[in-house]
Amino acid sequence: MDCIGDRGTEVQEFYRGANVLITGGTGFMGKVLMEKLLRSCPHLNTIYVLIRSKKGKDPETRLEDIFSDPLFDKMKDNEPKLRHKVVAISGDCNLQGMGLKSLDRSLLMEDVTHIFHVAATVRFDEAMRLAVGINVMGTHNVLELAKEMSKLKVVIHVSTAYCNCHLQEIEEKLYTYSFTHQKVSAIADSVSDKVMEVITPYMLEEWPNTYAFTKAVAEDLVRDEGVGLPIGVFRPAIVVATRDEPVCGWIDNLYGPTGVFVGAGTGLIRTVHIDGDKVANIVPVDMAVNALIVSAWEVANKPRAQSGDEIPVYNYVSSVQRPLTWEQFMEKSSRHGKKVPPMRGVWCYSLTLNKHRSLHLLYTFLLHVLPAIIVDGFAALLGKRPKLLKIYKKINKFINVISYFGTREWKFTNKNVQALWERLNEEDRKMFDFDIGGLDWEKYFYSYGRGVRVYLLKDELATVPQAKAKYKRLVLMHQGVKLLVLILVLRLLWTIWSLLS
The Thioester reductase (TE) domain covers which part of the protein (predicted)? Predict the structure, then answer.
């Protein structure tokens, strides 16, 4: 949607003439944020995106790659000139001074009015030193730069709803911990890699992984170093595919539930250590981004925090107003996924949720490891390279990592988010819809299933009839294998009975 007439909505006007700095603009949420700002706030001035060189590509080339994504097709079709509002700035949050050139640093200090700090390593098993460097020191470097900006109106630090997963109830406030960001950073700076590896489990204490832990440390840093800045903290839950903006079902990663969705849909994942009765706290990325954009508007209009307790926090979750269990997630994803099965499926959908780890391990051996050994054995006999067991080692590692969040449940509050929605006028509610209470899960999963197929697996919907025919054959094979196993078991029991009688 464009501005209503020459003058936009209240939130759009907040971004008129804005010079926005986005860190993490090459990531999932960062891309959607950039696209939404360009399309719905066309009167902003410039978006600076901090990008580092990677795999031989310079920041400009990486930015062009981002704009070649289907996510930006709608914007390019309707307003192609908006692309020129985006400027790549070479830098890295992890480096001293963010790795900025002198001229670029001066430009940002004099020009930037809004900051969205989205950059983070989201790998659950990231090495502690690197996780501290990116998630903690990266935040420190952004805030140091923010303090030097003469026109700054707002800084939003994007955290995660699960940074306080050691608690049972999570409110919209910054917590204090037994550690401090200074202490954690000092340890990361002083010990060797070997020592760091040994002490990491002791540093984690009640946290399940380095991602959640270092995001908590980053919040401790914001609580300390954010005082005096126009700053707020935005905590999204598990962010998944778009609901409808700019296209339905867009997603570009296999993180978390989407990895299970794809793995089960292709027939590779047959068991997961998840309690089906627990709430799957997922949120569509476009709705989360709308809430993020609007939260910046509210934070900018608040008095600057004079203590850590005054820094506003927004828990963007679905569990309060629109809860969905993991059982419901799997049922809806499988039902809609089977309507558009992938061409590259290796088996039919047959997923079991096991809340007991011991049962899951038994299923893992029977349904993952044993078939992989058999298939790899045949491959070796045929002179081919065995690879399925190696694939399942990665899959089982992925399942182990996500099981912590699939077997537990937290009680969140989101009063600030609900109050923010109530504060919006009707025009802004249409423009920046983030009302999770109005989300239709059935419609969402219809788009989610198709989006995963088209945008993630790169399977055009035109191949659905062919894929359905293949899926029917896989179902017949599955039933045949089950029958064969049943016959073998009955034969074994009969043999044992005969020997004993």
Answer: 22-291
Burial 107-131 (b: 16+ CB within 10 A, else e): bbbebbbbbbbbbbbbebebebbbb
Q: How confident is the model at residue 81 (pLDDT cuts 50, 70, 90)?
A: confident
**Comparing C-alpha atoms, which of 81, 130, 89 is closest to residue 112?**
89
Cα separation, 222 vs 220, whole angstroms: 5
Which of helix, strand or coil describes residue 316?
strand
Q: pLDDT tens across 137-172, in order? A: 999 999 999 999 999 999 999 999 999 999 999 999
Place of tokens 């031989």: 56
Residue 415 lies in a domain: no
Express each pLDDT in 375-387 by its tens digit.
999 989 988 899 9
**11 touches 428 (CB < 8 A):** yes
* pTM for this prediction: 0.93
Same domain, 52 and 137: yes
> Is the same domain home to 185 and 241?
yes
For residue 176, the 8-state DSSP code is P
Sequence-ordered strand ranges (E) for 189-230: none
- Round to the nearest angstrom and report the end-to-end CA distance of the chain: 79
Q: CATH number for the domain including 152?
A: 3.40.50.720
Question: Torsions phi, psi of 447, nearest 5?
Answer: -75, -35
